[in-house]
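We emphasize that the prediction below concerns an isolated chain of 255 residues; any contacts that depend on oligomerization or on bound cofactors are therefore not represented. The input was used exactly as deposited, without trimming of termini.
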Amino acid sequence: MNRMRGTETKTLAGHDTALQAYLLGAVDFEAALLLQRRLHYDIAGDRDQAALIVCEHSSLITVGRQGSRRHLLIDADELRARQWRVRWVNRAGGCWLHLPGQLSICPIVPLDVLGLTPPEYVALLGETLRRVLGDFSVTARVHVDDAGVWVGDRLLAAIGVAVKDEVAYYGACFNVNPALDVYQTLRCHPRAAGPMTSLERERRGPMRPGMVRERIVEQFRAAFGSARVSLFSDHTALHAAQAPGPARRALGVRA
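Result of the prediction step, given as a token string:
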């Protein structure tokens, strides 16, 4: 059931938009952010293309526009002991604890070309992730709103988007099989009464992240009407993250 207030999920007809899908493994958050910026710059200049990044991050907390320090339920000493960095970001959404076993999903799409307003885009992204759950027979008590995809009162996939020059970036975090006990240490969204859940917990069986990545790409392609999809496992911007400033500029990466 879709609970997006005042917004109906929009179905897109086929587009000639070329989708570049980057199926990556574990990627440092700052490197992934540089890649997003590079792809945003490219797509803002050539709006006949779109990109999708699917990767994992090592443990850190990102705090979006609906999050605050009071949503972190542990003190600074415990954060240091766990070696969890806190990174404030300009996306919507609350506090996200990134862990191995959680997929970071970052579509970079031209909303004007697709004929989507930001609320319509958020609704379509949530519906796309709901359909991924359906591919693995997780349908009971599932609902979607602007915070993400819920199973009961627990978020499984949190959504947080930013838009610049009518190109959306950031996206969602999707729990496949991370350790769930540590989600007791924060409120992932102001409306979340309980900790996050995962696909593996709700399906009550082991999951292969590679299979989930494949279904995310296919459901994204179907929902957003991309006629052509190219798959990649690397990008020069990922290597530029550790390079000095002049080398980054030579690789075409803008900070």
